[in-house]
Amino acid sequence: MAHSKHRGPLAAAYAAKRPEDVAALYDCWSQTYDADMSAAGYRHPTICLALLARHLPRGAAPLLDAGAGTGLIGEWLDITGYPLVEALDISEGMLAQAARKGVYSALHCLALGGKLPFADDAYAGIISAGVFTSGHVGAEGLDELIRICRPGGIIVLTVKNTLWEAGFAARIAELEAQGLITRIEETRPYVSMPGETDTVPSRGLALRVT
Ligand SMILES: C[S@@+](CC[C@H](N)C(=O)[O-])C[C@H]1O[C@@H](n2cnc3c(N)ncnc32)[C@H](O)[C@@H]1O
Question: Which residue's CA lies nearest to atom 27 of ligand 1?
Fold first, then answer.
């Protein structure tokens, strides 16, 4: 069964302590990731795409797919009219799969969570599905995404409840109070993989950079 196959890598990725461990786990998983996630009914890319398309006009460019993985979202952004999308991921293996989709204008093997080598205001929009979750990236990854997204631009991300309740919600409120972002949309909590045993919900957020 598909979910018993992929409970291993995902559970291990959630429990990973160091970024290099996360990268190694995803490197190993990269070739079967798309099929496994499809079998698990993976929802984050669809939710993120819906939020982005509701708030960012067709053709807005360039976009950054932050934690792009194998590029599930890149394909759909391409189909729905966002012509220039760059991929960033910590895993070379995942990025190699993303490259094969032939839709990204650049691929960056980098870690979210620290300083990023991009100019201020570089992107019209940023999309990050399934990345702000246990063992991956926490609220410390937000500041740089805000810095590299231009004023008026949109950041769409999913946040797992475990993080949300452990300081992420407070950090979003703080950034709003500082006038750096406006929370333009927040979904109700939903389970990202109905075919999985991990049922901790996540939520989708759309933030406008001010
Ligand atoms: C659950 S996958 C989601 C991939 C893709 N966004 C999707 O929805 O299919 C999480 C991705 O985040 C990447 N990742 C984990 N920690 C990261 C970090 N610190 N910096 C950049 N990417 C990271 C992993 O390599 C993996 O590709």
Answer: 69
In angstroms, rounded to a whole number, what is the distance separating the alpha carbons of residues 61 and 172? 25
Instruction: Give pLDDT, residue 5.
Output: 43
Class at the top of the CATH hierarchy for domain 4-209: alpha beta
Which residue out of 6, 14, 21, 22 has the highest number of ligand 1 atoms within 8 Å of its CB and is therefore the one to mutate? Answer: 22
How far does CA 109 lie from the centroid of its chain? 14
Structure tokens that stand for 9 in this block = 């890598």
Q: What is the total residue count of the chain?
A: 210
Write down the domain spans for the chain. Answer: 4-209
97 CB under 6 A from ligand 1?
A: no
The reply to whether omega before 62 is within 30° of 0 (cis) is yes
pLDDT for residue 150 is more than 80? yes
The confidence score (pLDDT) of residue 16 equals 76
- Answer yes or no: is the C-beta of 139 below 6 A from any ligand 1 atom: no
